[in-house]
Amino acid sequence: MLTTVTPAAPVAIPIGSALISNTVHSAPVQRAKNIVYFDLETQKSAEEVGGWEKIREMRMSIGVTFSTARGDYRIYNEKSIDDLLTELQRADLVVGFNNLRFDYEVLHYYTVYDMRQIPTLDVLIELQNTLQHRLSLDAVACATLGVEKTAEGMQAIQWFRQGRLMEVAEYCCYDVKITRLLHEYGATHKQLFYTNRFGNKLTVAVGW
Questions:
Q1: Cβ pair 141, 178 in contact under 8 A
Q2: CA distances for 3 relative to 71, 130, 133, 206, angstroms
Q3: Edge-to-edge strands, sheet with 2-5
Q4: How far apart are the C-alpha atoms of 160 and 167, rounded to whole Å?
Q5: Which residues, 6 or more positions from 90, have their beta carbon under 8 angstroms from its beta carbon?
Q6: Please, which residues have CB within 8 angstroms of residue 164's CB and are 6 or more apart in sequence?
Q7: If you average pLDDT over residues 100-125, what whole number do you get?
Q8: All domains of the chain, ordered by start, with CATH?
Q9: Over the stretch 158-203, which tens digit does the pLDDT of each residue have?
Q10: What digits encode the pLDDT tens for the residues 40-73?
């Protein structure tokens, strides 16, 4: 399955880890011609495959991209994984949230190519390098855009097992749109907002 979806105007909409020991620095956004925003959902949980050190065994259920060159979303299932890999490898810049440490590692089940060689801006890692702690996508999206996710990864796994792939795809599209809106907001305002564990709204500077 490869589905193309043409988006409406980029407005905020109500919407639906794994660790590597070394610090990863994302690529800057300057001069990028085709920015591809990317997210995926998995077929299995970390617990089912024996822990977070076996991320690639979780396998992809649905992957979604938004290309600034095309101006549309594309939805990929496992059978069209080669098309997804090709799109990511041809991008001038891939933007995601935890994609360097998680999504790319899932894709390593399907390819010997090191996906981390692709020019990538991982919003989570950029924020973590500044704040020295991790943030959830929800914590940043709620504070910056006033939107929140309608589901989470375990729900997407349940949907996959029930054959409800369009619901998985819709949820994944929302995450891609949130990531795109956060990236665009940061590029314009040079900062994002987040809510800490005490419920306080704070600011973090970004450099893309």
A1: yes
A2: 14, 37, 36, 33
A3: 2-5, 72-77, 60-67, 35-42, 93-96, 120-122
A4: 9
A5: 34
A6: none
A7: 97
A8: 2-205 (3.30.420.10)
A9: 999 999 999 999 999 999 999 999 999 999 999 999 998 888 999 9
A10: 999 999 999 999 999 999 999 999 999 999 999 9
For residues 137 and 118, give the distance between their C-alpha atoms in angstroms, rounded to a whole number: 22
- CA-nearest of 94, 2, 110, 113 to 55 is 110
Cα→Cα distances 110→39, 117, 208, Å: 16, 16, 30
Neighbouring C-beta atoms of residue 201, cutoff 10 Å? 12
- In which residue are the tokens 């925003």 written? 37
Condensed to tens digits (0 to 9), the pLDDT of residues 23-44 reads 344 555 454 589 999 999 999 9
70: its two tokens:
């095309």
Provide the β-strand partners of residue 64: 39, 75
Quote the tokens at residue 29: 């956004």
